Amino acid sequence: MRSSNYLLKIARYAGWVIVIFLCILGALAAINQIPPNPKSYSPEFAKHPITTLMHVVPGLLFMVLGPIQFMPKIRRKFPKFHRLSGYIFALSCVPIGISAIVITNWFPTGGVGEQISMTFFALVFLYYAYRGVQHIRQRQILQHQACMIRVFAIGLAVAVFRVVMAVTYLGLDLNALQYLDLKLTGSFVATWLVAEWWIRRTVLPNAKNNMEPLKNYELLNDEL
Is 35 exposed, middle or buried (0-12, 13-18, 19+ CB in 10 A)? Predict the structure, then answer.
């Protein structure tokens, strides 16, 4: 038991380092894509500045506010700020998800595979954001946490995707558009799996401690 808690503590610290790195990377990527001269692997961003702004400005808010939502000290000491920033975070998900679907399907870059992957995960992203807000309004804290962990993980996949592109370019000499659909889908799946693992290591044990294990477990799995 002690070794398990120790490993979980190490995973928590390592996870925070990775999350902060990915958020910084994601924020820089969002800034670089702001019109009129977006620096992107896709030329479509420059051709459609309004849709791009609709995507990258909320994306920047997402990367800045995301980590704050999962800091226990801020939740405890500044509950009003946590609620306000949480609603801004959740609202930012709406234009991010909608614009992702528009960009992928109306201004495609990587083919049908990218369209299917991005559309599917954008819909999942929007669904969990909606359910997360719904749960917190009903005071279902654990279910809310589980949904927002998934939302944050799916959003971070965009930063993971850029790491994958850099690694494959440096290691395999692949340009950004080669195997784009596989790199994108792999990034989404990887972050989602990590989120599910973290939920089962942190949220579900709290549900058991709150003496409502069956109810919370069923509701959490209903979100899958």
Answer: middle
| Helices marked H in the chain | 2-32, 44-47, 49-69, 72-77, 79-106, 112-137, 141-172, 180-198, 204-209, 213-222
> What count of residues does the chain have?
224
Per-residue exposure over 62-99, b if at least 16 CB sit within 10 Å of its own CB, e if not: bbbbbbbbbeeeeeeeeeeebeebbeebbebbebbbbb
DSSP labels, 15-63: HHHHHHHHHHHHHHHHHHT-TTS---S-THHHH-HHHHHHHHHHHHHHH
Burial (Cβ within 10 Å: 0-12, 13-18, ≥19) of residue 102: middle
Token pair for 32: 């670089």
Integer-rounded Cα radius of gyration of the chain: 18
Going by C-alpha positions, the residue among 61, 127, 138, 57 that lies closest to residue 99 is 57
Specify the pTM.
Answer: 0.84
Supply the angle between the helices 141-172 and 2-32 in degrees, to the nearest 10: 70
> Mind spelling out the 3-state secondary structure of 118-129?
HHHHHHHHHHHH
Provide block-wise average pLDDT over 10 residues at a time, the chain (224 residues).
70 89 93 75 73 92 94 88 93 96 85 90 97 93 93 96 85 70 92 93 68 40 38
Can you tell me the distance from the alpha carbon of 167 to that of 12, in angstroms, rounded to the nearest whole number? Answer: 25
